[in-house]
Specification:
This protein has one domain: Ribosomal Protein L22, Chain A, CATH 3.90.470.10. Helix content is 30%, strand content 32%. The chain has 3 helices and 5 strands; from the N terminus they run E-H-H-H-E-E-E-E.
């Protein structure tokens, strides 16, 4: 019986507004990893690339670090939160400065999947006694 595990990955400081990233994230929330990557590859939004990177990172962590089967991976959690905001100013007429904020987002991806079945060691062939 395969044991189910949860593996997570973070993408912090994505240079996009969290609302824009959350729009794309809602397209693939709760789907399998393979389906999500196909959907995002055909999504014409800039934030789709950031979400793809986060999902691929979680997939790589699951397969390489935790020995999960890549075919059974599903996205259990995909959340987007507000990251750090940088205060900047834009020059305006008559020597004024208009403030604005550069927003960033943090993406959390958790995938669940089953462990790969352990391979049993190959049986050693019976040794034949040879006379010297």
């Amino acid at each position: 019986m395969a044991k189910s595990l949860t593996v997570r990955s973070y993408a912090k400081g994505v240079d996009q507004a969290p609302r824009k990233v959350a729009l794309v994230a809602s397209l693939v929330r709760g789907r399998t990893v393979a389906d999500a990557l196909v959907i995002l590859a055909h999504t014409p939004k800039r934030s789709a690339q950031c979400v793809i990177k986060a999902i691929e990172s979680a997939k790589a962590n699951a397969i390489n670090n935790h020995g999960l089967d890549g075919k059974t991976l599903e996205i259990s959690t995909l959340s987007v939160t507000a990251g750090e905001r940088l205060k900047r100013f834009k020059p305006a007429s008559r020597g004024r400065a208009l403030p604005f904020e550069k927003k960033s987002a943090n993406i959390l991806v958790e995938v669940t999947g089953d462990e790969k079945p352990k391979k049993k060691p190959a049986a050693k062939p019976a040794e034949t006694k040879e006379s010297k």
